[in-house]
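**Backbone shape codes:**
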Amino acid sequence: MDLRQQVLYWVFLATLRPNPGQPWVCLQSQWQCDDGGCVPHIWRCDGGRDCLDGSDEMDCAGLSECPRGQFLCVGTIGCVNTSARCDGQMQCPTGSDEDDCQRSDGCLNSDWSCTNGLCIPKELRCDGVEECLDHSDEMGCGVCGEDSWRCPQGMCLTAGDLCNGEVQCSDGSDEPVTCGKTCSLKNGGCSHECVDKDWGALCLCPGGFKLSSNGAVCEDVNECAPPSAPCAHHCINTVGSYHCRCKEGFRLEENAVCVAAGAAVRLLTVQRNSAVLLNVKSGQVELIQTLESDPVALAFDVARGWYYWADDRGSIYRSSGQHAIALYAGEPGISGLACDWLNGNLFWANLKTKSICMQAADGKSFTVVLKENISPSGLVLIPVESLMFWMDAYGLDRVTLERSWMDGSERRSLAVLTAQAAHSLSADVAARRLYWISDIKESVETVRTDGTARQSFTGLFRRRSAFSLAVFESFFYWVDREGLWQVSQKHPDQKRFLSKAELPLLAVYHPLQQPQGPSACSPAPCQLCLLTKRRSTGFTCSCANYKMLFLNEKCEYPSFIYATRDSVIKLEFREEGPSETHLFATHDGILSFDLAWNTDWLYWANLTGHIQRASLTQVKTEVVPTPVPVCLIRVDQKKGNIYWVSFKRNIIGSTTVNGQYSQQLYSTTAEIQDLHLDWLRGTILWLEHNRLIVMSVTGGRATELLHLSGEVIGNVAFDLKANSLLWNSKFAAGEKPPCW
């Protein structure tokens, strides 16, 4: 490989310090990384690598265990929620949370797989209600007649199966302690009512109680526990009963329904080529904005009075009700808009680019939140809980309901929607529930935001497909080919036609759908701030596209330095494209170079084997003396020492910056092909005749790590964060690599 053809680059980190040329000085509340950078002290040993070199997560004690309810990732640092274990998504860096998992035909472990591919909660199996549409969830369950016995798992037993000495129910309830007893003797052992049966005493319980597995004692029924959901918002269990409570701003009606007080409920929808607000009660229509093209998604920000829509060309617009502006022009395929109403940011999902993006309230800066293993639609945000939800069809045979923090971290599957033909994801924010339409089941499906309490609402659409859905105050709103409808969840037979609808787009517009509260992003020093509960700070900083987040928490365009045979060049990447700046040129040639981050000195070995250095902040060039000519150099970023390979490629040595002290660390009769300095861990690694060898930076015993027979290795690189070594085998057998 000719030197004139190669491009050597090093991330140009001189922009990381406010005063170039001076070492970093961390505040009392900060922790100093091994590379000199500063991070908040609370980020030390929190399971996330925040230093550029990952040193904030090294030598951490007490990380061998995770808090209760979390799973310890294997082979790395960090914990994930136990609910993320075996959910089909890898949250641990090594993927250990998905190791040794038993799958249930594409469903979650908490689901039961129907013959037709639908997934239902296991507790709905054999409950007497057909959920699978093909009756497979009720097959093999038996018929529970008057004298039959239903096990907790749904299976029905005949009277002859009771008290026969063989346990058939999972909880042993078919062999109660009342077998062979009579009610005339101590009430058959029952705590409440007793009825004589052929097999013994059958104990009965009053309303609000259930029979324990021993068949004698009546226990309180927790009506508030999943999967039942008798209350819209909060459910408080009491002995033998329960009562409901509503969130602030709502009043309780019918002992279970929470009705919004104050502002009227309106729907944001499209009529006559305009975005409008339709008053549900009065039918009055308020014009918001005339639209030049048909929108594919709508969103709003009540507090700021902003309305958003996207068209099929990939453009996004914002209106204040008076003036509309174009915010973004991108790729077609936008499949969902959602507003972070706490911070004024807008999120969108795009099926074509397979990504979720966020744009700041300034309407100029945007960033990609998620772009790996994702095909998103139906985006929903709940910023007061830092949560993001979407439907995902990544892969041909699996559709899931996904959840993550709003920075895209700790992603997991809440439900498998495969074979449902699911669409129109919506949320009732106050109820903390997600809803969607299942075309196959002709139903509205719902689950809590934590993935529990799955329910189905059937018989709503009269075999007419519903195109979109919105939910508020225990009411469903949807659009079909006839128009816009409303129905109560408590009274599904009382449908109400609201208006004609030109497009299947609607959202409930009400302040209680966007409850206000403090935002962790308010004091954050970020260009783009993403809410998350993965960090104790409550936020993650991000940068607009084309920029990188540096250790000073500022967003800068990435800069690199590379060398040709006689020049050192700075390469910068900006939105308008890359640009180059020649830092300096030399007639002595350049064999190898390195950059000292903390001092802004650039070191290089010239064609005569001498080491020189030049300051990037002042016009100054110096020679660093070495005992022998050298051709390859590496700089220790912690101590500033220079490690080199001799011009003949048979000696490794080190020299202090001023050249006053040099030492030979290693010599060989073979040829040293490449050298890597792992200054963070204090080791040197090099390639020698297809052998990878390691040694301490202070010298001593050299140890062979790897031998690759038959493969000629070119050069080596080290990933500090992953603690991994990479190499190439570019050179053919017999070809000598260059000294660089």
